[in-house]
Write a structure and sequence with these properties.
The chain is built from seven helices and 21 strands. It is α+β, with helices and mostly antiparallel strands and 413 residues long.
Length: 413
Amino acid sequence: MTKRLYYPREQQAGSLECEAQALACRQAEGGYEILLDATTIFPEVGGQLSDEGWLYHLQTGRELARVSHAREDGEDVWHLADRPVEVGARVRVKADEARRRDHSAQHSGEHILSGLASRLFGAKNVGFHMANDYATIDLDIFLSEEQLWALERAANEAVQTDLPTEIQVVDGAALDGLELRKKASGLTGEVRIIYVGGVDSCTCCGTHVHSSGEVGYIRIGSAIKYKGGTRLWFACGMRAVEEALAEKIVLDKLARRFSTKGSEVGEAVLRQGDELAACKKELRHRTEELLTYRAAELLAAAEEIGGLRLCAVLLEGLDMAELKTLAELLCKQSGVAAILLSARDGSLLYQLARSQGVVASMKELCLALNGLTGGRGGGREDMAQGSAAITASLRPQDALEQMRAYCRQALKA
């Protein structure tokens, strides 16, 4: 049995150091698992990540092992360490203070957000996950953007009040008579109840800050609709500060790029987006006009084969969308088979199409072209497309000539 000293009643954030004796040591995946009779290293449980820390020789202070994870096994806490420790050895256990502070801030911030989501909107927390670089809360109802703003503002007001975190230990049988936001079901024996920031109360086994002010800053990064409710990503303390600083750097760069103030970047980006959309629309229109003239030229120079016109040509710089548009323009005319190749950025793109009534299979012609070029592609009987890398052994003009010869035979048949 491991005595747990990471949250003694008189010190809400929990101790960071203690003395302990090694009761067992065994090899495990990733190192060695060590069982201690006491610990200040919080194990991964209740949605909160494990602490990390160190084991030192009690007399000499020499580091014996680095602890990267701890887990519960009944009443025992096993510590995953990089080195073995002799059974019976007396050690000093030290938890990583920065990691404890971070986890306590995230967990306490989760309480504040969950408590206020319940108070303000009647939302229930149905899921909480903490990772090394993010944390999420799942709520059972969907919250609008305006509601999320209100929640974030109220959460930081609760931080500013800097009310002490209160911990009450009761018998599990007494829970039914208490008004709490959330009660874990089936609890027996001693149960910890956490009161955070004056806005939340629930059963919880995690570590927490001394007062809500130590959370520092609560920031909702993003949110999505999830299983009919809301999944929101949040950060507290220095995590939130680092996220805000990173976004400020981006905002400052955009402000300089648009020669405007940070508060006006959004409108500048939207305005440029509208201008870009208008330019793209105009470009598509002009491209279609040019391709219409190109289609007329290709039809005029098309090869007559068995009552059909074969438009087989190698072009430069056209992308797949432009090839498709050109093929569609060609095949508006009756009796046309189009084999369009384009050399672009080291690749050979190809689009094959036929007019209505032409029986030749473009899918089969595409497979033949794949074989010639070592490319990949496919499609339907009336239209197919593909691409291949241009290499020293692949000359686009040779591929075109071979396809012309193949088509002559196929279209005559």
